[in-house]
Input
Amino acid sequence: MEISPGIFIIGTSLWIEKEKVLIINDIHIGYEGELHAKGILVPRIQYKDIISEMKNILKAVQPEKIIINGDLKHEFGRISNQEWRDVLDFLDFLVKHAEVIIVQVNHDPIIKPIAEKRKVTVMGSYELEDTLIIHGDELIDTKKRIIIGHEHPAISIKEGSKIEKYKCFLKGKWKKNEVIVVPSFNPLLEGTDVLQGRMLSPFLENVDNFEVFIVSKGEAFNFGKVKGLK
Output
């Protein structure tokens, strides 16, 4: 689905056609390890699912650059054995297909030692001709379109007595800038329900006027504005 002219939703990634740039957000490799430490037992298949989804996306598009827009790893302040193994393997997989750039943010304070092992560039943001790619946890003044993550947006849909949460993209305005919010690429992180109105990113103070694009079984559907769903 085309969310903005020349910009397409591919699974839970964003494809910028003109520059052949693929954006993935908030992968949080190692998240299942934290769940296990808390006594929440989940099958250790998260990483396999991430690789499987990337393979499906790379069958659909052939990027020249892949931007990992923040929170590549989950553990804050240290690099666990699982993260070393899985992050290096993930980067090895990606660099076979395109140049890889990591946008470094809150969960990545020590991502550089990993990136340097694979000669992957780490930056605070990434700019295209008319688009700025930043994580979204801090405001940056710009006149360009802004693509962020950080929020892990999702929406809960009620059908009878059943409630199901879906990852979603958001599109709206901050000042006069178009803002596109990309959901988490991690299958275990369902995300923040935008209908609850408690948003993390300062770009989303007026989220009611943002359009919602729900992702289900690899397809995207426009559900209108947030305020129309409340």
